[in-house]
Amino acid sequence: MTALDVLFDIRTGARTDTGRVRKLNEDNVAALPDLGVWAVADGMGGHSAGDVASRIIVEELASLGVPVSAQDQRARVMERLERAHKRISFYALENDLKTVGATVAALLIYGGELTCIWAGDSRVYLWRKGALTPLTTDHSEVAQMIAAGTMTEAEARTSPRRNVITRAIGIGPEPRPEMVSGALRHGDRLLLCSDGLTEHLNEDDLAEALAQAQPAELLSEALVEETLARGARDNVSVIVLDVAALPDAGIEE
Q: Which of 51, 79, 225, 229 has the highest CB neighbour count under 10 A?
């Protein structure tokens, strides 16, 4: 075993694109299989702000080092997000900028355990045995209204408040990321994405795409290309992971 207690072969496809409307890509992606970490960060604040915020998050995650346990991995990621939050806040103060921050959705894998850590409306989905399951819940005004029963999913997709988020790295006195953990299984497929993807593709679209037999690299390309074909009003970022148990790993399907 390695320091990550590797039980799976994980194939990754990742792509980020400016989209059809925006002139600047404020998204950044991180694929760090040696550290067991993958992440999508979606910046806000415009030129010299949102792109800087998302880049800072990716830089901090890349400095993680090799964890010695799943608990250690989670603690390191949370600590790096705290550092990113402070760096972004200082950058905004130093440059007299009002709103600088980034959403983040991070997937952590150590041994047979997976963890999602996120803030904002970037998402992680699990495709397992023909079923799509969201592993994250948006930190946004419309998500709160849907949970309260005052807005439907359909209304949320066209609401003028749909891009108003309630948590982000770099915004407010502390980052407040949320965390969930679970077990990884042979045959799992995982999707991380910025809201530039889910603005144009609903969960039925995602399920249909993830059901395809093409490898992770081609699927990540196909998802972005489909978003571009539908207008891509925002930057769009996608990471797809295909998970297969290593021989003699003793992993249940």
A: 51
